[in-house]
Amino acid sequence: MILYHLGVGAGALDAGGGAALHYLYENAGFQVLPSFAIVAPTFHEAAVPSLEIPGCDIDLGSVLHYDQQVEVEGPISRSGEAVLRSRVCDVFDARDASLIVREGQAFADDGRLLWTVRDTIYVRGEDAAAGQSRPRLGGAIPDRPADVTRSFRVLPQQAMLYRLCGDRNPLHVDPAFAAKAGFDKPILHGLCTYGIVLREAVDALFGGDTEVVRSFYARFAGVVLPTETLVVEMWEEGRCAVVQAGIIDAAGGPTRPALANGLIETSGSGR
């Protein structure tokens, strides 16, 4: 868990020269970001990830990670065992592509639901037979300036740290592989950006208390590169928070989208 927190940017020194030890030190009121649930099942994997969906023959080259959601039933324990049950729960049409929604639920030994994760993959060149469009998810940006804005400079080694959490896709470390995929250099994992944004929001809005968060949804809107600077904008909407993240244009142009439609629901938001 500490490695995961380092992978999503915990440990940067604040203005007073200190770090957020509750992410990094087991004797300092240690807490776990809910997004850890996404990587927990494959945390110790060392192989290149594969995409296996029963009944589907999918070319990995045609797949993009479209969005991600995590819902926790309570604080994630620092230790323990769980049983994970996975399924494909929906398929939607996206013109010349399909959106396949996958779900994983973790259960404790006594049958209690611990957490639910859902992700959507965008598969180019595949048409959904049902022809249904995906309902709009996430938060709508309020018509006012952000209540809180924070920035985070992605470390040169950020992707190399995050890949130790179980995602060994060479796209994030191998320049030759990245070039074949059409990128000038290895790119940051989308789920790393997702974790960074959640951590920044928890620190800014909830005083670092991860136990407040019950769910976090966001859509991946753009590529993030190591050394770039993320700007995270946040709006407090009752017991929810709407968030989005962009990349500062080094040439002085408009911010480039990175994460969109972000919505954080808290323990008092009606779940």
Automatic annotation (TrEMBL):
GO MF entries: (3S)-3-hydroxyacyl-CoA dehydrogenase (NAD+) activity; 17-beta-hydroxysteroid dehydrogenase (NAD+) activity; enoyl-CoA hydratase activity
UniProt superkingdom: Bacteria
CDD domains linked to this entry: HDE_HSD (cd03448)
Record-level GO BP terms: fatty acid beta-oxidation
Pfam families per UniProt: MaoC_dehydratas (PF01575), MFE-2_hydrat-2_N (PF22622)
The MaoC-like domain, residue ranges: 142-240
Family: Belongs to the enoyl-CoA hydratase/isomerase family.
Protein name in the entry: Putative (R)-specific enoyl-CoA hydratase
Organism, as annotated: Rhodococcus wratislaviensis
